[in-house]
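Researcher: I've been going back and forth with a colleague about how DUF4105 domain-containing protein might be arranged in three dimensions. Neither of us has a model we trust, so I'd like an independent prediction. The organism is Ideonella livida, in case that matters for your notes. Sequence below.
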Amino acid sequence: MAGWALACAGLGPAGAQALPAAPDAGPDLRRWADSPAWRQLLHWDETAGRSRIRSPGFFASPQGDQDPLAELQATLQLLDGPVPPGAGAPAACRWPARRLWLMEQGLLPSASSPLPAGCAALAAWARWDELTGVSLILVSGYLGNPASTFGHALLRLDTRSGARVGGRTDVSVNFGALIPPGEGALPYVVKGLSGGYVATFSDKPFYANDLVYAHTEFRDMWVYRLALDEGQRARLVLHLWELLGQAYDYYFLTQNCGWRLAEVVAWATGRPVADAPTAWYAPVELFHALHREDRPEAPTLAEPPQYKPSADRVLQAHFDRLAPEAQAAARRLMAAGPQALGDALGPALHPLPLAQQQALLETLLAWAEVRLAAQSPDVQSESRQLKDRLLLARLRLPARAQPPLEMTPLPSPALGHAPTLIGLGLGRSRGAAGWHAQGELAAFSYERAGRHGLPQGELVAGHLRWRSRDRQDAGGPVRVEAADLFQVLKLGRYSALDGPLSRLSWHLRAGVDRRTVPVASGRAPAPLRLALEGGLGAASAPWSGLDIWLMGQARWREGETPRVGPWLGATWRQGGVGAWADWQHLRGGDGTVWRGQRLGLVADAAPGQTWRVSLDREGASPASLQVGVQFFR
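Model: Here is an independent structure prediction for DUF4105 domain-containing protein. You can compare it with whatever you and your colleague have in mind.
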């Protein structure tokens, strides 16, 4: 769990400076203190009646976290007067965004530049003279870390020199919780949900984030360059400087990286991209908002996203352009391992034409880079030696202009469906003569055939299903049929380097549900029981857009004999349309059999809006049947 900790950039003073008594505020000053823009600058929580920022050093007044008027008075005194003894950096360098806003409102004299004079640290951090823009970056989900399961958002300050190296040397800004080293999974989840962690904005060169996300965790990224004018860009960058290292309470479900960045963008642009989170705010929702703002009657807020593939997708593209005999050689050499590869490299290269020798070595170098990143920070010496050996072999061959890799960009998850699912349908229970109404709600639902930020997978959390009673049932008119804490499907990413089957695929589900029993007149429904499911297997991708898997599946329900059996499934996705089908046959030790067949179709109506139609048949003979229509929002 130590890898979950984020560095904290501790910038700014340790606390607010003592100030002389402020003059009484006139009506105009109170009006500015009550304005939405000033309260946004203070990150004001209207419900709590105080700022969400907990660091005393963020405020100019000792009462600034609870009194916007006192904070405005104190800020004006510090910005419009001499620097008090012992105050450290000039107030304009500590609060440059406040200074800029107050100048725009006519409360401070205007200046020739939004960058305050004498703020060398700020100018160097923002690389002000080279700054060309600001980009928001959406990172795909990652099941190896609970905080990253739902995706991630970060920001990058784009510069002219950084553009020459893909932005890797530019400053990137993250928002995340500060996790103690060695924190266990259970405390991590509990504290993350309940506000038990402090979170901050922190900065580091983008190549450090790229190493983690693209090269270690194999996550894809989509870069949204914001279409900002100079004033908006200055407001955003200067406010980020004010926020670095300031402490917030952290709530994993709502006040997370996506929401905090949305607040900053909303303040800088005046655009409604930071709708208040209710029960849930996934990072992708910030990017849904960027797409919603792309409308004819308003200026474009973001340019079309640029796809940045993960390192293993780049490796796959290298492999795909090899001739068949070179692909076979690549598989043999990779299987041989670092020690044996040196002796096998010459004989493998010798029969190939020069162009294929060059391409093979370039593919092997990409593979070596993936190995090095996967072992970081404790890189094995044999992995370094492997890369050096391959690089030396490549340098012995003539140089060439490396042809561009042919890769089909993956569409941004923000063009797919929103994470909240609402559904209505009809069902017929085993032995029932008629149909009943049913519904479902999932707080977060990345469907297996949907277009979202968890490639080759499915994640559903907080999924509740209910139904009306059958005419023969006893009990009330509506009952809960099932409630899932989570359901996860992870298909091992298929790669031609691995052969016809993918790496390990798996499935987990935990929740409560009812045993399916034939309807009998006057019979009460079966009680809700704890239910657990899990499976392991393999997957394959016969052609683009289609995934097929086979798993051994086990299901346990409280008070019943466990059942085991096969699970065969398939998903297909092309453009805005997807489909899935699966079949399960589980047998218990007592001879009971449970069968399940499911079919579904999803279609995107607009960015963030998707409809789904599903047909489920499950249970023993006679089976229950459900048909429904679902909407994501």
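Researcher: What would you highlight for our discussion?
Model: I'd start with this: The CA atoms of residues 421 and 632 lie 5 Å apart. After that, consider the following. Residues 2-308 form one domain.
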